[in-house]
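Lab notebook, entry 471. We have the chain sequence and a SMILES string for PPS, and the next step in the workflow is to get a structural model of the bound complex before anyone spends time on docking refinements. Request logged below.

Task: model protein plus PPS, output structure tokens.
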Amino acid sequence: MLWRHYLVVFGGMRSGQLVVFGGASPSSNRFPYLIAGISPPTSLSTIDFQIWYHMCKAGRGQCGRALHSLESRWEMVSITAVARLVHLNSSIKRSNPNLLSTTKPLFTLKSSSPVSVNSSIAMSYDDQLIAAKKAASLAARLCQKVQKGLLQSDVQSKSDKSPVTVADYGSQVLVSFVLQRELPSQAFSLVAEEDSRDLRKEESQETLRRITKLVNDTIANDGTYNVSPLSEADVLTIIDCGTSEGGSNGQHWVLDPIDGTKGFLRGDQYAIALGLLDEGKVVLGVLACPNLPLESIRSQDQHALNKAGCLFSAQLSCGTYMESLDGSPPVKVHVSDTEDPEEASFFESYEAAHSSHSLSGAIAKKLGVKAPPVRIDSQAKYGALSRGDAAIYLRFPNKGYREKIWDHAAGYIVIAEAGGVASDAGGKPLDFSKGRYLDLDTGIIVTNRKLMPALLKAVQDSLKEQALPSL
Ligand SMILES: Nc1ncnc2c1ncn2[C@@H]1O[C@H](COP(=O)(O)OS(=O)(=O)O)[C@@H](OP(=O)(O)O)[C@H]1O
Ligand SMILES: [Mg+2]
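Result returned:
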């Protein structure tokens, strides 16, 4: 283990209270923090839990982020923590990586009720998040290559879906491949949009050949995985890893390999959307949005808008982060905090067939929104909303349309961890535990917590008016 890449915290339960004995980010004065508490442990057997925070890259940003997630986890188990972080630049010595604690109490931790410390605190999805980011980034590279060729091709017409097919399947193969390579010891279940049925047909041989080449080229160019090229049979098998039914037990990955197919064809927005369910709840999500500008889409600066390619990532209780697909450091993002609908703008589907533009218009008007709708494809809407590009997202498909979990899982947690809330049109949280579909019969609305009550009322009033027979 590379000690310098970890923040270590030790603690236990004493008289019903959670006590942090101490901890250190060891061995390097680049991590000059010590967390220490009361009752230094006399032996390892008194330690009930240890939390190791994996930090991918050494640096203070990562340390701050790890500490943030630490605080969030304490909140998660209903513990109020009053922490003093002590700057110990000079006292952490390289030779003393196991600096555990000081004798002075620097922490007060109160537990309002008995808590299951071990189970709650130990739950970390850091490894899965790293794997998910890697998988979505690689898939994005494949999609970018295909979209570039598609846009440059003279013969390409919008009705020709074949490049999309190649990119859809290729993206699904790469995500499935990377997750299994990166997490070899974990059971693998994937709920994904594509299956191999059509590809196994005689007339699809050329398409399968193209997908296989694309996937192998992308893996070879990346250089991380020293594997012999995948065969066409391997590709078919890997695609069919995505046929899981999901559900409320265990962990399931949820993937839309290209969300926003129509946007992809137009050269507009699309996303590679990957989430992880644990016991029916979304616990992490990654959205790779190759065409989304790194700056707010409301920016007036054309030069800034030309720089595109965002990767959003969120893990339960750890916040939402955005980085560039080229690998800039992640920055924490937050939804717009406006309470004033007059200041708010709203997102909706680009395609009118996917969401009623007239209903969203009526809701926005009732709420007092002045700005015209911003129409973009795919879950890029959730990503852009998580950093405050707009304050509201409204989605009202035709009656009878069944929403799939892969169209919302990643976006749902990206929004929730950025301080927003996504619900059905009645205000109920989305339920991802029911299999491949969301059980909804209204629509999906997303905004910040302050605006949600007013939005819900406007939605309910508009739906009632719509249901009335016109006079
Ligand atoms: N009829 C209908 N009603 C509602 N929704 C539908 C419908 N048909 C498709 N879809 C799903 O919409 C996904 C595209 O996302 P958006 O609707 O947000 O984007 S946009 O319409 O492209 O602007 C799109 O995702 P992809 O199929 O991955 O592109 C579909 O899952
Ligand atoms: Mg989709």
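Notes for the group: The pocket of PPS (ligand 1) is lined by residues 256, 258-263, 349-351, 353-355, 377-378, 397-398, 401, 404, 407 (CB under 6 Å). Worth checking against the assay data. Residues 126-152 form the longest helix (27 residues).
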